Every structure is written in structure tokens, then in C-alpha cells.
Amino acid sequence: MAKIHGLLDLGRRGMAVSQSALATTSHNIANKSVDGFSRQRVDVMTNPAIGDSKTRVGTGASLSGVSRTNNPWLEKQIEREGSNLAFLEGRSGALSRLESTFNEQSVKGLSNSMAEFFNSFRELANNPESLASRTVVRDNAGAMVKNFQEMDRQIVSVANELNNTVETGVREVNAHAKEIATLNDKINSVEMTGATANDERDRRDLLVKKLSEKIDISYAEDTKSGMINITAGKTGVLVGGTSFSELKTSTNQFNQTQIMYEMSAGGTQVDITEQFKRGALGGAIELRDGMVASLRDDLADLSYNIASEVNRAHVEGFDRYSKQGENFFDIPQDGSFLIENLKLNDVISTDVGRIAAAAKPNAPGDNTTANVIHSLQFKATMGPERTFTFDNFYNSKVGEVGIMSQKTQANYDSQKSILDQIKNVREGVSGVSLDEEAQKMIEFQKSYEASARVIRMADEMFDTVLNLKRL
Amino acid sequence: MRITDKMSQNQVLNNIQKNRSELAQLQNQAATGKKVATPSDDPQSASKILTNRTDLKTMEQIEKNIFSAKMFLDTTESTLSQMGESLIRTKELVIQAASDTVGESQREMIGSEVGQIYNAVLEMSNRRIGDRFLFGGSRTDVAPFGLDGEYLGNDGEMKIQNQQGNFVAMNLTGDRVFLGRGIGQGDYIRQPENIPQDADQLQQYKVAEDEREFQNNQNLENQIETRGPASVGRAQGLGKSDPVSGGDGVNIFSLLRSLNVALKTNDKVAIQDALEPLDQALSQINVVRAEVGGRVNQLNAAADGIQKSVVDNKTLTSQLEDADLFKTMSDLSKSDTTLKGTLETSNRLLSRSLLDFLR
Predict the structure, then answer these.
(1) Which of 407-466 (A) contact B at CB < 8 A?
(2) Residue-wise pLDDT tens digits, B271-301
(3) How far apart are CA B120 and CA A204, in angstroms?
(4) Chain A partners of B62 at a C-beta cutoff of 8 Å?
């Protein structure tokens, strides 16, 4: 048979359970907007009944634990898709900068200055005697060289920006790895007692997602200790239980920031840049070593070809003083060509009379060489098979950048909607609903009140019992 | 499905952002009138637009070329028409002087008029446009004819691009017009029609030019042997084929000079003999004038063609890059309405929760 004491105790336990439930509800409400938070629920367990076999009376409920509502499979999906999105995001920013370098829709760019360069030779052919048209040739040539150098500079600055992305990305990765190692330790010690480290796990899940947004990782949880081990790329062990190691960066001879992994503390560093194909850093590295590098080479090719083709014709000509022409552009002959070193021959920039328009001496009106030079504009001299004109070649590059940027943007949009959808599903499972919490609040408040009533009732019952004698 | 607050917040935010970015893009189109603002808007068009623009620039430059070549040719033509008039006047004078009714003193008077005509023709042959001599070939900086009518220019033609890959010479060389060199079937070799297109062809061209010059000089030397004192003096110098020019053109200067001498020495036979070469000289001028006319026609045709192409080019570029403003505007108002709707419904979605009804 139940005792009145039992009733008091029952009421007290009921109040405690309701109080914990209310605390959890408040915890949920407070963390409503925290990234990666999973709503928590108290697990209430019915206490074992007491009494003999026929009259077993229940002894109320007690707290068995607080658990989070979380679907690990969804988290894994978000981690994957988030990594893909970050890959595209890492590219799209730099690509649009690259695109604006090649954008001539509203500003005058290289295509324009190439056309003007060749047109100034047409004008020179109209009037080779004129100092004015010679000056225009020199100035337009100078403007074209400047334009090449400006574009080259901008491409380099995009590459530097990507280097910067790698640099700061690695720093973030290291910070996350460190925090994950700390959380591993915490989770291990909390869960040793049999509890679940809900908030720590939420935080760790979030950090893993963030890591994956930066680089390729693979990870696995040790079911016994609850700790996870993370490998960056294929070989870089980032987190192993409670210990972690840092990724390093170094700059190679092409001025590219590479990701290094230290085999042992202070030991030899191995270049593992190649292993990163996903995440923001994977995207940045692929763009930097792929398109950005090749565009820069293409631009150098183009400027070198223009310069050397013009030179080849120009040295055949005769200038205003009936002297054999010299090189029009100053380019190194040993193959070490860099756009930034391209310039007009000093002889020509100081005296435009040295521009060779004629094909024979003592013929100031002869324009044969000028005609040859402007004909180069529509001559197929570019590409391995020499099938493209200068303009074709450049315009196809503009198209390439445009297509790449367009594709990346489209992929980014669709990837973003995929991720948004999965995140929505996750919010549906793990997110906090205020309506729900309000309803729970009322529910637990009512049970709290009711449990208090039970205690009062028990108290009144004591009174009744104690007053029996007096009656 | 369980709907949580963050879900609805994200949804609202995403929708508003989608509407806004659509609106921003349309606004940009409306403001610039261009639907291709960056290569990624339409990569194929962007690269086509660039090609078009370069073509347009080239065509505009070629229009300038044509204009400057036409100016050169027009000046040449007016000079040649004056030349023609002078020769006709000479012919009149010669017919007059060839008559038996004319006496010695009159012939001398006519002779001095012919002398004046010689000077006038010399002046014409040394005419300039700007500071370039018209008839000096590509040697435009020195007067092409000396006082005795000796040629100091060269036979270089200045070729002007009048279409892509097509060139027209804008000058007539003085040796041809005034000395009749290379007019007929003489052994004189003229410059090739084609011009070199690249450095290798330029090299070959230079070699060919050197060879041609050498050949021509050799031919000239061979003829000079036979020339003797004919350039001044007797009427035999007026012969059909001028020994200096080689071909069957007429050396107008020596013709006039010989005529002058014949008139002053009252040499009636020589005067009569001069009539035929005079006619030839006239037809020689007409031949080159026809050539000028032909070139001007060619240039005009090219200019017409280019004007058409310029219009086509601009139309095509506009089709590729310009936004359809009516469409943009209607899209704009559509997007605007959508955004308003989104904002209004967001207000309802976000502000309500169970807590609002628990008092």
C-alpha cells in the first residue's frame, strides 16, 4: 500500500521532472538561432512500481537523460553538399573578377587597343611621310603594351587573391581542428559517465561541416570513446582523438601558395596541395592552377606573337631615313618572355622616324611594310596549327572565361538550392519551433503545477491524519 | 511536415533575395539598354560582339583610307585634265603652224607659247598634295621632274587598303604619265599587282623588286646607247617610239621641247611630223585618266559596300547586345509586383507564433 510519504516524494519528483523539462525548453528557445543546434528533449522514464504482486502502485517518473533530435545521415549529406557548394563559391568570386578583366562591354579593353594598333598602321600606310601618323602608331603601340600589362597584372592579382584564400583557409582549418580536438576530449569525458554531450556534439558536427567547406576531409567516429578522427586530403591526419596537427603553407617558384603537411612536429613537410579537390580551397586551387594560369600563359603567347610577327616584318622595312628597320618591340630572344618586360624599342619611342613603313630605301611614300604589318591583324598566326588570328584567339579566350563563369554561376545556383533543401529537411527534424516550445512550456508548467498540488494534497492528508485524534 | 521558425525565415530570405537579384539584373538592363553586360551573360555573343567591334573599327579606318586615296586621285585627275587641255591647245597651235599661210615670225611666236605650255606641264608634273608630290612614285619628297624633264622619282605605287585583303594604288607614277614608260607593250616591267601579306612574302617581294629594278635599268641602258643627241634638236626625235621610254608611249617633255625647237627654227616638216605623236600623247593622257576613273569607281564601290556592311554590322551588334526595352520593362514591373507580394506575405509568415495568442 502506498504511503503518504510516497505521495510527497512523488510530487517532488514530478516537479523536478517538469522543471528539467522546462529548463530544456528554455534551452531550446534560447538556442533557436544557433547554427547547427539540434533541439533537445528530456527523456522521462516511469519509475518502477512498488508493493506486493497484486497492488503494485507506481512511483511516478524520473529523468533518464536529455537527448538531441538529430539525423546523422542528414548531417553527412549537408557536409557533402556544403563542400560542393563551397567549391563553387570559391571559384565564382574569383571568376567574376577574372571575367571583369576580360569584360569589354562597357570599357575599352585589349581587343579595342589591338584594333587601334593595327588601324594606326593603316593610317600610316595612307600617309607614311606624316610625322603625325607615325606618332599615332607609336602611341597606340604603347597603349596596347600597357593594356597587355594591365591585364596581366589583374590576372596576377586574381591569382594572389586565390593564394590568399588558401592561406586564410588553412588558418581556419587549423583553428577548427584545434577546437574539434578539444571537443573530442570534452565529449569523451562527459560520455564516460553515461550522459550524452548534446551541445558539444552539435558544435562538433558544425565544425566538421565547416572544415569540409574548406578542404577534402574524411572522418570516422570511434564508437567507444565518441571521439572522431579527421584526415585532410588523403594523407594529412588533422585530428586524432584529443591531439591535432596543423597544416602549413609555403610559396613555390610560380608564386603559388601550396598546402604542406608536417609528417612529425618540426619534421619534413610534404606538399599535399594536389590532394584537395573539394571545398573552397579545392575550388581556389583548381582555378588558380588551371584557368588563371593558362589565361596568363595565353595572354603572354598572344603578346609575344604580336610582337614577334610585327618585328619580323618591321626589320624587313626601311624607315624615314632609308635605314633598315630595327625590332619594333623589345623582346628577349632567349625565350624568357614576360609581359611585364614587353616594351617598344627605345629607338622607336625616341624617334618615330625610325618606324619602317617602306620596303625600299629613298621612297618616303612607299607603304609596303606598313601594309604588311596591318595585314597581320587578319592573318592566322595563333594556336598550335596557326589557325587563329590575334582577334580570334583573344575573343575565344573572352568566350572561355564567360562560359566558365556562366557555368560556375549556374552550378552554384543549383547546388545552393540543393543544399537549401537538405538544410530545410534538417531544420524540419532538428530545428526549434517556437509554437512547439510554447506548447511544451504550457504542458510542463501545468504538470509542475499539478505536481505541486499533489504535495499540497499530501500535506492536507497529513493534516487529516494528525487531526484524527482531536476529533 | 514539421515547419520550424528557421525554415520559414530562410524561405522568406531566399525568396526576397531571388526577387531582388532578378530585379537588380532587370534594372541594370533597363539602365544600360544592354542585355549582355558581362561575358557570362552570353559568352558566344560576347565574343561575337568583340569581333564585330574590331570589324567595325577596321571598316571605319578603311573608309578613311578610301577618302584619302580619293583625294589623291581627284587631285591627280584634275591635273591630268589640265594636261589634256594644254595638249589640245598645243595641237591647235601645231595645226595652225603647220599651215603654209603662217610665216616665220608667227611660227616663232607660236614657239614661245609652246615654251610656256612646256613650263606649265612641268609645273603640273611637279604638283603636290600637302607636301607629297603627286607623280614621284613613292619618292614623294623630291620634285619628280627636273627642268629638262628628267625623271627623279621612282615607279613605286602607293597601295591603299580598300577592302579586307584588297588594295588599290592611289598614285600614277610620273614616268608613266609624262614619259610614257610602260604604257604600251614595251619591255618595261611594272610593279606586281599583289602586295605581300607577311614577313616572308615581304622578303620575297624585296628580292623581286631588286631584280625588277635591275632589269629595267638594263633595258634602259640598252636604249640609251641609241639615244644620241635626239632629245634636243631634230624632228627625228619626235618619232613614234621614244627611245628613252622604250615602249610606245610618248615622252611629253621631249615632244614639247622638240616642237619648240622646230617652231623656232621654222622647220615645217618637223612641225607636221609632231602632229601624230601629239595625238598619241593625248591618248596617253586619256588612258591614264581612264585608269584614274576606274580606280575612283572601284573606291566608290568599295565605300558603298563598306557603308552597307557598317549598317549590317551595327544591326548585328545591336541584336546581340541590346536589351529589348519593352520586354525589360514588362519583366521589371512583373518582378516588382512579385517582390511586393513576397514582402507582404513575409510579414504574415514571420510575425505569428503561438506565443502571440497566449496571454
Answers:
(1) 409, 420, 423-424, 427-429, 431-435, 438-439, 442
(2) 888 888 899 899 999 999 999 999 999 999 9
(3) 103
(4) 122
Cα–Cα distance measured from residue A369 to residue A317, given in angstroms and rounded to the nearest whole number: 6
> Which region among B45-49, B161-165, B307-311 has the lowest average model confidence (pLDDT)?
B161-165
**Within an 8 Å CB–CB cutoff, is residue B207 touching chain A?**
no
pTM for the whole structure: 0.84
Mean pLDDT of B182-195: 74
Please write the tens of the pLDDT for every residue from A21-58. 999 999 999 998 888 899 999 999 998 888 777 888 88
Residues of chain B contacting residue A368, judged by C-beta atoms under 8 Å apart: 159, 195-196, 202, 205
Residue B17 lies in a domain: no
Cα angle, residue A23 at apex, residues A18 and A26 outer, rounded to 5° = 125
Instruction: Give the model confidence (pLDDT) of B102-119 as tens digits.
Output: 888 899 999 999 999 999
Candidates A375, A418, A425: best to mutate against B (most CBs of B within 10 A) is A375
The secondary structure of A22-51 as a DSSP string is: HHHHHHHHHTTT-TT---EEEEEEEPPPBS
Could you report the per-residue pLDDT of A411-426, keeping only the tens digit for each? 999 999 999 999 999 9
Please list every residue in chain B whose beta carbon sits closer than 8 Å to the beta carbon of residue A123. Answer: 61, 64
pLDDT value at position A119? 94
Cell of A96: 567574376
Per DSSP, A273 falls in state G
The answer to whether residue B318 neighbours chain A at the CB level (below 8 Å) is no
Q: Is the pLDDT of residue B151 over 80?
A: yes
Q: Is residue B206 part of a domain?
A: yes
Average pLDDT over residues B9-13: 88
Helix (H) or strand (E) run with residue A170 in it: helix A131-192
Please report whether residue B338 resides in a domain: no
Q: What is the pLDDT of residues A288-297, one digit of tens each?
A: 999 999 999 9
DSSP type of residue B142: S
What does the buried/exposed string (b/e) look like for A223-232 if buried means 16 or more CB atoms within 10 Å of the residue's CB?
A: eebbbbbbbb
* Residue B164 domain flag: yes
Using the beta-carbon criterion (under 8 Å), do A399 and B164 form an inter-chain contact? no
pLDDT class of B192 with cuts at 50, 70, 90: confident
User: Can you tell me the mean pLDDT for A357-370?
Assistant: 90
Is A83 in contact with A106 (CB distance < 8 Å)? no
Q: How many domains does chain B have?
A: 1
Contact B195 A371 (CB under 8 A): yes
CB-based contact, B112 to chain A, within 8 Å: no
Q: What is the C-alpha separation between A65 and A60, in angstroms, rounded?
A: 16
The Cα B58–Cα A111 span in angstroms is 12
Pseudo-torsion of CA A202, A206, A209, A214, nearest 10°?
A: -150
User: Using alpha carbons only, what angle is made at residue B188 by residues B184 and B191, rounded to the nearest 5 degrees?
Assistant: 105
Note the Cα A225 to chain centre separation in Å: 32
Q: Show the domain range for B86.
A: 55-219+236-308
> Which domain CATH number covers B126?
1.20.1330.10
Helices (H), chain B: 5-32, 43-98, 104-125, 174-177, 199-227, 252-264, 268-273, 275-321, 325-351
- The answer to whether residues B298 and B161 touch, using CB atoms and an 8 Å cutoff, is no
Alpha helices in B178-274 (DSSP H): 199-227, 252-264, 268-273
CB A233 within 8 A of CB A273: no
A359 close to B (CB below 8 A): yes
The residue of chain B nearest to residue A309, with distances taken between CA atoms, is: B199
Cα angle A392-A155-B46, degrees, rounded to a multiple of 5: 35
